[in-house]
Amino acid sequence: MEEWGAKPLDTDRPVKNGDVIILPVNNSYSLELPKEVTRPLFTMQFPVCPWISTMHLQSGAGFYADMWGPLPFAFGPAPQEVYHAFLVDFSPMGGSYGAFGQAKQVSPNPGMAK
At 40, which helix (H) or strand (E)? Predict the structure, then answer.
């Protein structure tokens, strides 16, 4: 996405009204966006290799992190990669700008939340 001009979300930098934020479902320590200032836009799904996973919580594969599963890879049905797009909309707050510095991190493993 960076090749297309997208920039990583930095919780220390303000977001602007009209910004689009893409969040992958298959991710660790994702941000929980404030519902008051974000609106769902669309969901994208991308097929993956249908018979093996190297990093997916559902399949128990944790190639890069054992908190996702005990195996570096798992054979079996692999779920598609899913991404949700959200629009930043500050209009309910009078059109003001802000940062998501107070956004909450969500861990796929509740025991690992920071």
Answer: strand 38-46
